[in-house]
Amino acid sequence: MPNKIPDVLGLYANEALDILKGDNFRVRCVETLPVKNIDPSKNKRVVRLRQLAPGLVELVLVHESSKKLGEGGEYCGI
C-alpha cells in the first residue's frame, strides 16, 4: 500500500522536501515567478501539492516576500 502524502502546504521548501523524501516520495518542484522585486535567494514556501503518479508528487513554490503586512508598498499597506 502506497504511503499517504504528508501535508506540507505552507512549509518552507527545504522542510517539505525533507519530509517527502524521508517518506520515499520523488518530488518535482515548480517555482512561480515573483511579480515584483523579490530576492530569489529568499525562502520559498509550498502553496500547492499534487500527486502526479504513485510515489511522485509535484510542489508549487512561491518566493516569500520580506515585507511585513501593513508596512508601506502598493500591496503590503493593507
CATH topology tier name: Trypsin Inhibitor V, Chain A
Secondary structure tally, helices: 1
The total of beta strands comes to 3
What's the CATH first level?
Answer: Alpha Beta
Radius of gyration: 15 Å
Mean of all residue-level pLDDT scores? 82
Which geometry do the CA atoms define?
elongated
Total discrete domains:
1
SS-based class: alpha+beta
Give the neighbour order of strands across the main sheet.
1-3-2
Give the DSSP E fraction (strand runs of 2 or more residues): 25-35%
Q: Write the CATH architecture name.
A: 2-Layer Sandwich
Main beta sheet strand tally, sense and closure = 3 strands, mixed
Proportion of residues in helical segments: 10-25%
Low-pLDDT parts are none
**Distance N terminus to C terminus?**
47 Å
Q: H/E series, N to C?
A: HEEE
Describe this structure in words.
By secondary structure, the protein is α+β, with helices and mostly antiparallel strands. It has one domain (1-78): Trypsin Inhibitor V, Chain A, CATH 3.30.10. It is built from 1 helix and 3 strands, in the order αβββ. The chain has a 3-stranded mixed sheet with strand order 1-3-2, with helices on one face. Strand 2 (44-53) and strand 3 (56-63) form a beta hairpin. The radius of gyration is 15 Å and the shape is elongated. The relative contact order is 0.25. The mean pLDDT is 82.
